[in-house]
Amino acid sequence: MPTPPDMARSPAARDKTEPPSKIVVMGPAGAGKTTVGIELAHLVGVPFADADTFHSAASIQKMTRGQALTDADRAPWLEALAEHLRQADVGVVLACSALKHSYRRTLEVGIPFSTHLAYLAVPEEVLRQRLAARSDHFAGPTLLESQLATLEVPTAAETYDGTLPPRALAEEILRRTQLAKR
Questions:
Q1: Which secondary structure element, helix H or strand E, spans residue 25, and what is its range?
Q2: What integer pLDDT is reported at residue 15 of this predicted model?
Q3: Which residues of 55-66 are buried (b: 16+ CB within 10 A; e: fewer)?
Q4: Which of 25, 43, 143, 148 has the fewest CB atoms within 10 Å, i.e. the most exposed one?
């Protein structure tokens, strides 16, 4: 998985009245969270974090075998992600599945929280095609069915067309996020 260079602007370079940009790009496996998240972090000028790097070795092994994680498996992962978001004083873009409302509440993202949520809505067939085409990730096509069954779709205001080109999608998320800050 590509890791971008540190893209954080120093706090002195930011407008003192502007709160840090914290955005969670979410969706099931194959939605494009990492690709769009890296692009968005570059546009916003904050670090990018991929929630996949926060999984325990046991969880990664489980997913590699095609087994879905349980809420108990996800609990320490979600707590680590929530702490990472809280500590991101210069802002952050986090790519995270965040499939359930309760997971998003743990992360304190979306309405009414100040961390913005960007749900990448992608048709199931496109997700299947994307997952079949990738070979360098532990979350393969066998996990998609359980992820779609778990998914609790966020509000329409937080939903984006995940089939757009990554740059255009990142620009749309940035535009709508800036409008929400006003």
A1: strand 22-26
A2: 45
A3: beeebeebbeee
A4: 148
Residue 134 near residue 127 (C-beta atoms within 8 A): no
127: Cβ–Cβ under 8 A, 6 or more apart, which residues? 28, 29, 30, 31, 144, 148
* 112 upstream amide cis, omega within 30 of 0: yes
Helix (H) or strand (E) holding 142, with range, is: none
Domain borders along the chain are 20-181
Do 40 and 23 form a contact (C-beta atoms < 8 A)?
yes
Tell me, rounded to whole angstroms, the distance of Cα 100 from its chain centroid: 13
The β-bridge partners of 23 are 93, 116
CATH of 20-181, one of 3.20.20.70, 3.40.50.300, 3.30.200.20, 3.90.650.10: 3.40.50.300
Torsion of CA 154, 150, 137, 155, to 10 degrees: 0
pLDDT tens per residue across span 139-173: 556 678 888 999 999 988 799 999 999 999 999 99
What is the pTM for the complete model shown? 0.82
What letter represents residue 146's amino acid? Answer: S
Which residues, listed in sequence order, are joined to residue 49 by a DSSP beta bridge? 94
